[in-house]
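Risk register update: the risk of archive-format incompatibility is retired. Evidence:
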Amino acid sequence: MAQVAITLAQIAEKIGAKLVAHNDQLVVSGIGTLEDSTAQQVTFLANPSYRKLLDSTKAAAVIVHPKMLEECKTSALVMDNPYVGFAKLSQIFDNLPLQAAGIHPSAVIAKTAILAEGVSVAANAVIGEHAEVGAHTRIGPGCVVGDHSIIGKNSLLHANVVFYHDVVVGDDCIFHSGCVIGADGFGFAPDAGKWHKIAQIGGVEIGDRVEVGANTTIDRGALDSTKIGNDVKLDDQIMIAHNVVIGDGCAIAGTAGIAGSTTLGKNCTIAGGVGIVGHIEITDGVHITGMTLVSKSIKESGVYSSGTAIMPASEWRKSAARFRQLDDMARRIKQLEKNL
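Archived output:
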C-alpha cells in the first residue's frame, strides 16, 4: 500500500484544527504515540495525565487543547477536542486495503438480486433472491446476504458476515467478520417437558452509520423487527435478542447482552459485560458501568452500577456471608424500630 504524504496545513484543514507551526508545508507520513512518534509523524494529547510527554516527544506536530498550547514545544494542531482530532487523523492514514469494484467469478449472485453502481462482491460471497445492495458497498469474501435483504450505499461487510433474510441496513455501515444479523430469536413455548419453536417472523432494521463488531449477533424479531438506530456503535461479541430496540447514538462494549423486547433510549453507553434483562425500558442518556446487571427499567438519565468492587478474596467471603444475613437483619431492625 502506498504511503500517505501530507503537509501539516492539509492536516489542519482536514481535521478542523488551528495550526501553530514554523513550517506549515512540512510533510508527514504517519501517526504515532506521544512517546514513540518520529519526526515524520503526528501525535495527539487527549488525556492531561500524559502532558509530561510533551517535553520529550519527537513528533512533527501534536494535536492539543488550547490550554496545552503553551506547553507544546513542537508544532501544534489546536482543537477543543483533541481525541476527535485523533479520530479524524487516523482516517487520513487508514491502511485498510480497498476492495476493487466488481464481482469475483466465484461469487454466487441470484438473478433477482439488484446491485447498484460500484458494488464489489469478493470471492465465495452469496447474494440471495431479491436482495438489494446500494452503490459502492463492499461485500467481503465468504459473506452471505439473505433473500429480500437490503443494504444501503457505501457500506462494508468484512469477510464472513452473515445476513439472514429480511435484514434492512442503512448507509455508511460497517460489519466486522463473524457477525450474524437476523438469526432466530430464542423463542420456544414449553409443553409438558417439550419445547415448541416459535417461528421468528420479524426482521432486523439497522440505521445509518452503524458499526457492528466481530462475532456480534443481532436476532430477528418474533413478529415486529429488532431495531438499531442511527450512529449506533457495537463492539465485539455482543448479544442483542429479538425485538430489542436501540436508540440513536448508543455505544455498547464487548460481551454485553440485552434480552428480548428491551428498549434502550438514545445516546446511552453500555460498558463491557453488562447484562440487561428483557421487557424493560431504559431512558435516554443512561450510562451503565462494567459488569452491571440491569434488572428493572431505568426512567432517569445518569450513571448506574451494580455488584461489588474488587477486594481480597478473604474479605469478599466475609461480605458474601453477610449478604445472606441481610434479610434477617432487616427484619430484626424493623422489629427494634417498632419496639422503640
